[in-house]
Design brief:
GO biological process, one term: ketone body biosynthetic process
Largest sheet: 8 strands, parallel, barrel
Number of strands: 10
Enzyme class: lyase
CATH superfamily: Aldolase class I
Strand content: 15-25%
Number of helices: 12
Pathway: Metabolic intermediate metabolism; (S)-3-hydroxy-3-methylglutaryl-CoA degradation; acetoacetate from (S)-3-hydroxy-3-methylglutaryl-CoA: step 1/1
Strand order of the largest sheet: 1-2-3-4-5-8-9-10
CATH class: Alpha Beta
Helix content: 40-55%
Shape: globular
Structural class: alpha/beta
Protein name: hydroxymethylglutaryl-CoA lyase
Distance between the termini: 41 Å
CATH architecture: Alpha-Beta Barrel
Radius of gyration: 18 Å
CATH topology: TIM Barrel
Number of domains: 1
GO molecular function: hydroxymethylglutaryl-CoA lyase activity; metal ion binding
Amino acid sequence: MAYPTQVKIVEVGARDGLQNESKVTTEQKITLLNGLSEAGVIHLEAGAFVSPKWVPQMADSAEVIKGLSVNQNAQLSALTPNLKGAEAALECGIKEFAIFTAASEAFTQKNINCSIEESIERFKPVVELAQQHNVKVRGYVSCVVGCPYQGDVQPEAVLDVCKQLLALGCYEISLGDTIGVGTPSKVKKLLDLLTKELPLDKLAVHFHDTYGQAIANIHTALEMGISTIDSAVAGLGGCPYAQGASGNVATEDVIYLLEGLGISTQIDLERLAKAGWAICDALNKPPASKVSLALRAKCEQ
């Protein structure tokens, strides 16, 4: 199959990337999101309306969203695991909710203290609220290749969860390799099954780079017709419930790959990298993106 002519990038750095960072201010989050928007990133996961007891780093999501001055074309989404969170997101003007479960029963129990079936049941009022207010709902499925607690995850289990989320009303499903154990052959096996049963335009990929396979996995997904990719500027992130899992694939690395393949994203790579440098400087850590590091070295020559 030919590569897609255009690819949608869903930037998750400000939520999935920063949810494990304790020393980041509201103003720094706003600066990051505004910088990403200036670079041409349209789809921005801006925060999470979750219990501050469990994820205190996201307690200022409403303040962040209300303080943004992003491009008028920007489409903001937020994690809304329950009705209370969805109502709070709605008050901030969010037009896309994100809900999350997993293809692993063990991970779902550890992550949100319930079974997969129970997690989907919990999402029904969130989806109902979204439909009442013309808000889209995106579903995340974690551990689509492997789980830190049960090991390998079978593609059939992923397909079952995807079907349930689509039946619930999700317009798109993001397939998350939460602990980054995927390889191109495993990804191909998974997508071979899913694309036989589900529409291509309903699927997105979300790879973590724990074993350095994320870009190779994305290339495989592109070859199979996937045209929506989640990524985080500077490779920010990790998973609090998956020990040793490193960050999301870096948006800079994804854009460099796509440009090399002649695929349009309409994102300015240099401006994107600068937004990453700013947040990494604020966090006192280097970017996890090799493209970002190479561009910075070139700029500093």
